[in-house]
Amino acid sequence: MDRPSNAAPAIADTPTGARGPLAVFVSSAGAGVVLSAVVASGRPILASRWSLLGTLSAWATVWVIAVASARRLPARAGLLLVLVAALALRIAALSGPPTTSDDLYRYAWDGRVQAAGIDPYRSPPAEASLARLHEAWLWPDPAGCAALDRPPGCTRINRPAVRTIYPPVAEVWFAGISHLGGIGAHHKSWQLAGLATDVATIGLLVVALRRRGLDARLVALYALCPAPVLEFVNNAHVDGLALAFVVGALVVGLGPSTWRTAWRDLAVGALIGAAALVKLYPALLLVAVLGLPRPHPWRSMARATGAAVALAAVGYAPHVVAVGIRVVGYLPGYLKEEHYTKGGRFLLAGALGLTGAPAEVAAAVTLVAAVAWVASRRPELTRGAAVLLASLFLVATPVQPWYAISLLAVATVAGLPEAAVVVAAGYPYFFAVILDHPHTTAIGRLSYGTALAVVAGGAIVPRRRATPRSTAVHASPTTAAVAATSGPPRGSRIRAR
Question: How far apart are CA 403 and CA 445, in angstroms?
Fold first, then answer.
């Protein structure tokens, strides 16, 4: 049973004849579907510029309305409507090529070289020895380059002069999609793959919510949000695969108490490890394993970490044998390019007047403090994961807004809807960077500073305590009496400190 003190407020069932909320939901969700198609079939970011951000803002507005109205729909019908709307949003996002990112072209290239029997970490795409693998859709002719507003000899692949940055599980994914879609498959195969991973994530979120004893309609916060639709389906970011592994780990961690503890620890660790081998940052979530209700939390964390490390060793071993140190790829160059190595990317530290090494130290200390808090207080699994991810993204303030979608998914299960603002904060900053706005840093500090204020406010303001829906509906009178007289659970002592 979930700890009542850590549970998000349950959504009360509404009468079946709630026509008003139904009309609002249908109209707002329908508007979201239209806007999804408009964004996907419209001009890319460099052509539409700031007007695209305006369209995304309108989409975010109808998302908030749809989520609010979903809370007032009958439970079963409401969940069904949310899932239908979520699928419609994602199908609409398939109506055009990527809108704000060209990362999928790099995925396609990595899959292409693997199909040719070449290790993806060995050489950059532009190396002359790989010219025989250049395909017209990735390396357009002069007319194709002109259509892209690029000079002759262009490529759709970003950073063609450097080796890949993606970890081994991501590379297996790239190879698999290339094989299934056929060599030469264009962007649609990758978008369909993104659709599959995101639909899986939504299904896993429903299971996780129910295992926490919460109303499954809460999935609307993630399922109807524009960010995963745009980033995981239209832009086909591989982060969607990492997130599916993360939510899978939550589902396993929240599983029945009859499961053997050791096997559950290993499974949670393997899933988090798989996520980290797609994008590295989910490795931080191993600390949240301490929040599982077990007699020996540190032993559980050791098992989970061991499983993740073992998976990493298996994943990297063949590449290390093939290319040695080149397996690190472009990661050091990426950190330098993003100004993390000199402290320039830590926008909120910069707002305090810290630059260079002091900014790096402040960022590291803040993140270590968040890890220490989770390790010492051991909040419930999903809450701990949400705290860790929120701390990471508010400290790192990344340009890429799709990173924080993982926080949105975890916060959906944790009952922390205010964390969605961290995802929203990334978009003004992203547009400012891509469009070379003269006040990029100020925009980033304002957007992420606002997100910090909202998240901090949500942590400070007391939450209404409520019994999880599954307990309130299904508990017998005897069970309810025991729950009422057994005293406060461990989580309530944590919150009182």
Answer: 17
- What is the C-alpha to C-alpha distance for residues 187 and 99, in angstroms, rounded to an integer? 12
Q: 């019908």: which residue's tokens?
A: 77
- Residue 494: pLDDT over 60: no
Position 18 scores a pLDDT of 65
Neighbours of 486 (CB within 10 A): 8
The helix/strand/coil state of 316 is helix
**Alpha-helical runs (H) found in 212-294:** 220-223, 226-228, 239-253, 261-276
Q: Rounded CA gap, 410 and 271, in Å?
A: 15
DSSP single-letter state for residue 42: S
Calculate the CA 28 to chain-centre distance: 24
Q: What pLDDT score was predicted for residue 144?
A: 87
Alpha-carbon Rg for the chain, nearest whole angstrom, is 23
Rounded to two decimals, the pTM is: 0.88
Residues 395-413: b if buried by 16+ CB within 10 A, e if exposed: bbbbbbbbbbbbbbbbbbb
Q: Is residue 13 pLDDT above 90, yes or no?
A: no
Q: How remote is the C-alpha of 364 from its chain's centroid?
A: 22
CA distance 192 to 466: 39
Helix or strand holding residue 471 (H, E) = helix 469-474
pLDDT digits (tens, 9 = 90+) for 209-265: 999 999 999 999 999 999 999 999 999 999 999 999 999 999 999 988 767 788 999
Q: CA–CA separation, 193 vs 201, rounded Å? A: 13
Residue pair 247/207 in contact by the 8 Å Cβ criterion: no
Helix then strand count (H, E) for the chain reads: 23, 0
Instruction: Tokens 């590291």: give the residue.
Output: 364
Residue among 102, 156, 110 at smallest CA distance from 330? 110
Rounded Cα–Cα distance for residues 274 and 296 (Å)? 24
What is the per-residue pLDDT across 158-210, written as a single tens digit (0 to 9) for each? 999 999 999 999 999 999 998 887 665 688 999 999 999 999 999 999 999 99
Q: Work out the end-to-end distance of the chain between its first and last CA atoms, rounded to an integer number of angstroms.
A: 23
* pLDDT (average), residues 32-37: 98
